[in-house]
């Protein structure tokens, strides 16, 4: 836990020492990738869990015995366009998954989520950092499976946040925001043992990530 905290602190110190400011002008692009940590039961991934990872669980004294092998991935990309100075709107996506496999292939469990939706972020530029407000909505589906049994659900997420973007140069900021999300899962049953279900969860979410600000290419 100490290394991530030291890294984040170092990024803030380095950012505050830079004088360059990203341009939040109409016509520029906003590209970013973030990750979340959920609190109070809200949806979210692990803090800064970007990319892919693999975990092996071993039991007993035999070092060659892998009881379970787990693989999970999480990508949260977004792209926006400044429709006016300081206001960017765009689309974001969530692509995540988890797979757990026993060494003897007897037990297999997997989850996969994919979704997309709009977001809007309004900045209030200051000298050292940029406070902002943001709203987002995501629509998508989740599929989970245990051995040969599949379970599919649709989901809808709505979130509202307050945050701050700290410049790391003319084109990059380190972003931190906190807010509230509400997520609804809906499953349509197919029989007596598979009934219609709905799950609603909500709570406080902390997001961190990086954003890149680019001007659109000009026509010759």
Can you give me a brief rundown of this structure?
The protein has 220 residues and is mainly beta. The chain is 7% helix and 64% strand. The longest helix is centred in the N-terminal third of the chain and has 15 residues, at 2-16.
Regions with pLDDT < 50 over 5+ consecutive residues? Answer: 1-19, 38-53
The number of distinct helices, counting runs of at least 4 residues, comes to: 1
- Helical content band: under 10%
* Helix/strand structural class: mainly beta
In the sheet with the most strands, the strands line up as 1-4-5-6-7-8-9-10
Ends apart, CA distance between termini: 51 Å
In oligomeric terms, what are we looking at? single chain
Q: Main sheet, how many strands, which sense, barrel?
A: 8 strands, antiparallel, barrel
Global Rg: 21 Å
How much of the sequence is in beta strands?
A: over 45%
| SSE order | HEEEEEEEEEE
List the helices and strands and how they pair.
Layout: H1 2-16, E1 28-38, E2 51-58, E3 66-75, E4 77-84, E5 87-102, E6 108-123, E7 130-146, E8 149-167, E9 172-187, E10 197-215
Antiparallel strand pairs: 1-4, 1-10, 2-3, 3-5, 4-5, 5-6, 6-7, 7-8, 8-9, 9-10
Provide an overview of this structure.
- By secondary structure, the chain is mostly beta strands.
- Helix content is 7%, strand content 64%.
- The protein is built from 1 helix and 10 strands, in the order αββββββββββ.
- An 8-stranded antiparallel β-barrel has the order 1-4-5-6-7-8-9-10.
- The longest helix has 15 residues, at 2-16.
């Amino acid at each position: 836990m100490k290394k991530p905290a030291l890294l984040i602190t170092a990024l803030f110190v380095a950012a505050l020492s830079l004088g360059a400011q990203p341009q939040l002008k109409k016509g520029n692009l906003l590209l970013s990738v973030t990750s979340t940590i959920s609190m109070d039961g809200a949806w979210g991934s692990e803090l800064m869990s970007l990319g892919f990872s693999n975990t092996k669980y071993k039991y007993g004294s035999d070092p060659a015995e892998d009881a379970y092998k787990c693989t999970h991935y999480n990508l949260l990309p977004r792209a926006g366009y400044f429709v006016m100075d300081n206001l960017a709107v765009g689309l974001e996506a969530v692509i995540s998954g988890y797979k757990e496999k026993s060494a003897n292939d007897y037990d297999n469990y997997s989850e996969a989520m994919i979704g997309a939706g709009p977001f809007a972020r309004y900045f209030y530029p200051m000298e050292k950092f940029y406070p902002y407000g943001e709203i987002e909505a995501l629509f998508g589906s989740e599929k989970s499976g245990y051995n040969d049994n599949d379970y599919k659900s649709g989901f809808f997420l709505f979130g509202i946040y307050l945050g701050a973007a700290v410049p790391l140069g003319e084109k990059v900021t380190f972003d931190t925001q906190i807010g509230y999300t509400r997520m609804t899962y809906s499953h349509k049953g197919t029989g007596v043992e598979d009934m219609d279900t709905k799950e609603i969860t909500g709570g406080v979410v902390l997001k961190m990530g990086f954003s890149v600000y680019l001007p659109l290419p000009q026509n010759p």
